[in-house]
Specification:
Distance between the termini: 41 Å
Strand content: 35-45%
Helix content: 10-25%
Low-confidence stretches: 259-270
Radius of gyration: 18 Å
Strand order of the largest sheet: 14-9-8-7-5-2-1-13-12-11-10-15
Number of helices: 5
Number of domains: 1
Number of strands: 15
Order of helices and strands: EEHEEHEEEEEEEEEHHEEH
Length: 270
């Protein structure tokens, strides 16, 4: 079974205009979309598209329609002239007692030779808006484990940052461990960094119960942490940026691989 759960810690580090750092424990699931329909048959305490202690609802991701997620991902890749993948792994939070909030969902798209074709970073904000950054792994090498990618920010996420910024991603392919780093940069340098490091554990009814007992409020904790830390930043005197709603609930854009400087990034993005 390719699907698994990764236990680890998520760290947020705001660097400018004022320093602000916090971290908390989370359990993130890696779901092979080809295994999704059979996972609920394997486990007593996990279900797909219906309530259970832990559950997965397709409508929580993609365009929100509940359509087959593999079909949606294949459509995004086709629009970006990326070949159809043989395997798609999805890194996300499941619902816990019926609730989940996924600020970032990552789709790892592999060829039949197990070579990474592309990464899709699906960002959802607290206003219910979503944007997917589709970045082909155009220079992927055999045996490569870490990937550096970048993209212009399109969706207003934090009330304390403008959208005139760039994301820099450093992604480790899932194995015994996993690491995902995200930097937010502007013309003056790094503004913010988030890092998740986790260790793989097998999916089982025991580990599902363990997640519920150890992290019973994980889903609520994520959304509460977002608002609590935002309140702390507000009282630190950091200026709030006015939210401008997106025209559509779901949208996408293409990024680029590597670490070009900002001017090169602009040239590559058009």
């Amino acid at each position: 079974m390719n699907s698994a759960v990764y236990w680890g810690h998520l760290m947020h580090n705001r660097i400018r205009p004022r320093k602000h750092r916090f971290a908390y424990r989370v359990a993130s699931w890696l779901v092979d979309l080809d295994e999704l329909d059979t996972l609920h048959q394997r486990f007593r305490f996990f279900s797909v598209d219906r309530f259970n202690l832990l559950s997965f609802f397709r409508k929580d991701f993609g365009d929100g329609s509940g359509r087959d997620l593999k079909v949606q991902v294949e459509g995004l890749l086709a629009e970006n002239e990326v070949p159809a993948p043989a395997r798609i792994l999805m890194f996300c939070y499941p619902r816990v007692l019926g609730y989940a909030f996924n600020p970032l969902t990552v789709y790892y798209c592999f060829s039949s030779e197990q070579k990474l074709l592309a990464l899709i970073y699906e960002v959802t904000n607290t206003f219910g808006e979503r944007h997917s950054y589709v970045i082909p792994a155009e220079k992927a090498k055999d045996g490569q484990v870490f990937f550096h990618q970048a993209v212009e920010k399109q969706l207003h996420v934090s009330p304390f940052f403008n959208t005139d910024c760039q994301y820099g991603f450093r992604v480790q392919l899932p194995g015994k461990t996993i690491k995902l780093s995200i930097n937010l940069n502007n013309d003056e340098g790094k503004l913010f960094a988030a890092v998740f490091k986790g260790t793989r554990q097998t999916l089982s009814d025991f580990n599902i119960l363990k997640q519920l007992l150890v992290l019973p409020l994980q889903a609520i904790k994520v959304i509460l942490a977002i608002h609590w830390e935002a309140l702390r930043l507000f009282f630190k005197g950091i200026k709030v940026v006015r939210h401008v709603p997106k025209a559509r609930f779901f949208s996408w854009s293409r990024g680029w691989s590597g670490h070009p400087d900002r001017q090169e990034q602009k040239n590559q993005s058009g």
